[in-house]
Write a structure and sequence with these properties.
The chain is mainly alpha-helical. The protein is 74% helix and 0% strand.
Amino acid sequence: MIALLGLITIVVLLGAIISKKMSPLIALIFVPVVASLAGGFGLATSKFIVSGIQNIAPVATMFIFAILFFGVMGDAGLFDPIIDRILKTVGAKPTRILMGTALLALLIHLDGSGAVCFLITIPAMMPVYERLKMDKRLLCLMVAMAAGINYLPWTGPTLRSSAALHVPVTDIFTPLVIPQVVGLVYMFVVAYLLGKREEKRLGFSAAELGDIVLKREIKEEEKALRRPKLFWINAVLALIVMGTMVSGKVDPAPMFMIGTVLALLLNYPDVGAQKARVDAHAKAALMMASILLAAGVFTGIMKGTGMIAAMAKVAVSFVPPALAQHIPFAMGIISMPLSLVFDPDSFYLGVIPVIAEVGKMLGVQPIAVAQAALMGQMTTGFPVSPLTPATFLIVGLTGVELGEHQKFSIPFLWGASIVMTITCAIIGVFPF
């Protein structure tokens, strides 16, 4: 009976989110609370909620301060010299343009926001593509692949998987560094090969490829925030924060909290300026943090009532024990196409806990399921999914039709997902 209630809860949750009848924030709280009350758990529901929120609090805190930290770093101009250098270097050679586009998107996506990455990278590179009459689908692909492969401890899918399984972010991410590096190598190889193909299509000779030097237009209010004299201090601070966090020696939440405080003190010592910088990035931080806390409500109720365990026990009976060890690898292979069906909230917070529990009962570590999902589900998959606004931002900024973008980009993005999944299996993150 509890298993059936759990199944109904997840189906209703997925339906409410995917059909847009409810926002993820409302659905993640309302649906499980109603299910818990309907299951007769009464006032115990509040205890489940508190337990879930307590488990999720470190992740939500990390995300809030990660957004603030990278926002302040961007305001101070940490990324400006890198962006300008890339634009100056790519010139008019398609191979360099594609690789430069990927590198620029990769660096801009360090804040974990796909929307910000696309809003900065695409307008910066678009004039080059238009002047040379290059295929704009290549621009779509490069920014999509860079942002997708660049999953980080503070990006949405990683945070959601951590929240769903109550596993530290660094435990999930650190073993995936090597697969990510392999994915980035794959990206630059694809960029180079497609650049060569584009050179042939355009029919340019070396003499005809004149240098194009672009300079970004920075608004006056943005210039007022820049701190060029503090560039190297900011760079060292960013490296210390990220390096220490990835090493696992210090938990991410306090590291980003300390980093944000130091960044504000160094760049904006005036109290009014500090408040303005926090206000400027608070909306993005609060939006995701509220969803993460709502996810804590959902997972707290699902675990506290025993619904996840009950569903897993039923599901175990349908999985042959001999095939159990292959669950993570299979998940990794199909993870990218799943982005076209499930949005990140419903997948990571509704589907993953059940699959992980099934795997656990059959001897598979739950964390392996989460790591496999990160190989494509809303990582390489999010820039082509019709369920994410960022996809429409790509096609809107480039003028490429959604269908054309998906048709052109999906094979390469899925290729990246498969390459990273195989790498995970080779190095032992999870078995074949």
